[in-house]
Amino acid sequence: MIEVNNLTKQFGNKTAVDDLSFSVEKGEVLGFLGPNGAGKSTTMRIITGFIPADGGDVSICGIPVAQKPEEAKRKIGYLPESAPLYADMTVTGFLRFCASIRGFSGAARKEAVDRVIETCFLQTVVHQSIDTLSKGYRHRTCLAQSLLHDPEVLILDEPTDGLDPNQKHEVRKLISELGKEKTIIFSTHILEEVDASCTRAMIIDQGRIVAEGSPENLREKGSGSLTELFRKLTTSDVVA
Amino acid sequence: MSAIGIIAILILLSVLIGGPLLISNIRAIFCREVTSFFTSPLAYVLIFIFLVAINALTFLWPGRELIESEQAALKDFFFYYHPWVLAFYAPLLAMRTLSDEHRQGTIELISTMPVRTIELVCGKFLGSFMLLFASLFFTVSVWITVSILGDPDHGPIISGYLGSLFVGGTFIAVAIAVSAVTRSQVICVAVSIPICLMLCIIGFDPVQNFFADSGVRFLSFTGELLASISVMPAFVDFSKGLIELRYLFYFVSIIALCLFITNTVLQNKRA
Q1: Phi and psi angles of residue A66, each rounded to the nearest 5 degrees, phi first
Q2: DSSP 8-state class, residue A161
Q3: Strand, coil or helix: A6
Q4: How do A200-205 and A63-64 pair as beta strands?
Q5: Where are the alpha helices (DSSP H) in A74-191?
Q6: B105 vs A: CB within 8 A
Q7: Taking a C-beta distance cutoff of 8 angstroms, is the pair B9, B249 a contact?
Q8: What is the distance between the alpha carbons of residues B182 and B204, in angstroms, rounded to a whole number?
Q9: Residues B261, B177: contact at Cβ < 8 Å?
Q10: Average pLDDT, chain B
């Protein structure tokens, strides 16, 4: 469903993504782990077509993102890291706008919006202005827009960032449910989320894959601890 | 002017190579822009300032007061000021179109949806244009006043409004192109207003007379060249009631060129 081949991206002299290759099939939930600046968000932005790659290619359900971007984007639901929203809209207004962009109209649009409101537990804030929402609700609103068109592929950049433990639990449960029939990549700093939601995980550092496998395999490599493996394989940017 | 037209045709062809524009996308973005404008107090403040400026100039400018002139015509007392006021007003309408997307981070959201950049740009342009239309609509009170006090020829008034819409649309397109380059609304306005003023000044009669009366062939040629890219000759004819196809072509071409530049800048910025 997602094919990434020899992906490379440079920003000036810095190599953000360095010859990255991997694939994710239907029913897989791939966890992207890595320290800050490892290239996770950049990789996701290339997969979703927001920025072009300098080398390599990406295809979504067999559709090359670079050559047929609009067609590929129809297959993707994307939650950016900052969960951007239009602050001057209400939750319903924003979701209706996104649904219109996704090709919905009339009763189908209403049905899609109602469905994601229920899926993301936004019932109590539907008519509230987005600029008055808490961080958790903003995140869930942005997650909701990624689900409107029931995409085959979900790219979620730190989907539980800033959520309280209850909300984190609900989002992880949602990801696990969705992962049964979709292809999901999500990035996280929280290693326990890998066990909770992922069928496979990948640790990235300085734009390269340093470890890959199921959560169990990775834990074995880290002598029983994913944290130990993460710290062993990645570069720390904290000066001792 | 022919060169601008040829460029516009090439632009149209290059855009259509990427496939037909989805009107539904443009409409969704247009509706969002218009709703966003009118849910914020900024739109009402801007329209108010515009109406005060236009009406003050029309009724109070010393030596050119509409009522005192006792003429049932708006060309020299009302439409005369439009390009100059629009050179300041249109950039204010358009300054937040793209800078807000960058500031809120929603450019990442909208760019990862099945929307072509040119569709986004067209929707943004039409949203600002609708606000311009609303602003000009509220100046109809001047037309009504003249119609009550006298018996104006309505044809030139209608074409004058059309000219104002085209001039304002051109300035909006210029400001949107500038807003694609900078995230700062202040810089966008500070750069757009001089560009729009220049598009007025280079075709303004005193400037054109300077070039024409110079007696130097090069300067005469320069004056003609500047007049061909200025909005003033076109607008003056519109306000007289003359709607020429070449001027329609000119306005559409300039707007298309600016929107294409915006599209190209946005795409290259992400690379």
Answers
A1: -70, -40
A2: T
A3: strand
A4: unpaired
A5: 91-101, 106-119, 135-147, 165-179
A6: yes
A7: no
A8: 30
A9: yes
A10: 87
Separation between Cα atoms, residue B129 and residue B124, nearest integer Å: 9
What spatial distance separates the first Cα and last Cα of chain B, rounded to whole Å?
A: 33
With a cut of 60, say whether residue A52 has pLDDT above it: yes
Here the tokens at position A135 are 């961080």
The distance of B111 to chain A (nearest Cα, Å) reads: 6
Q: Is the pLDDT of residue A177 over 50?
A: yes
- Beta bridge partner(s), residue A24: A2
Buried b (16+ CB within 10 A) or exposed e, B222-235: ebeebbbbbbbbbb
Q: In Å, how far is A56's CA from the nearest CA of chain B?
A: 15
Asked if A204 and A40 count as a contact pair (C-beta separation under 8 A), the reply is yes
- Taking the CB of residue B141, how many other CB atoms lie within 10 A of it? 12
Put simply, the answer to whether B112 touches A78 (Cβ < 8 Å) is yes
Q: Long-range contacts for A138-141 (Cβ within 8 Å, ≥24 apart)? A: A138/A83, A138/A85, A139/A79, A139/A83, A139/A163, A139/A167, A140/A167, A140/A171, A141/A83, A141/A85, A141/A91, A141/A94, A141/A95
Query: With 60 as the cut, is the pLDDT of residue A238 above it?
Result: no
The average pLDDT across A142-170 equals: 91
For A158, other C-beta atoms within 10 Å of its C-beta total 23
Nearest Cα neighbor of B81 from B102, B106, B53, B118 is B53
* Low-confidence residues in chain B, pLDDT < 70: 1-19, 64, 66-72, 271
Continuous segment of H or E residues that includes residue B46: helix B41-60
Q: Which residue has the tokens 């509230």?
A: A128
- Judge contact between A184 and A30, C-beta under 8 A: yes
Whether the complex's predicted ipTM is more than 0.90 is answered with: no
Contact B211, B225 (CB under 8 A): no
pLDDT bracket for residue A239 (50, 70, 90) = very low
* Residues from chain A contacting residue B111 (CB–CB below 8 Å): 49-50
Residues A188/A96, Cβ–Cβ less than 8 Å:
no
Sign of the alpha-carbon torsion through B166, B167, B168, B173: positive
AA letter at B142: V
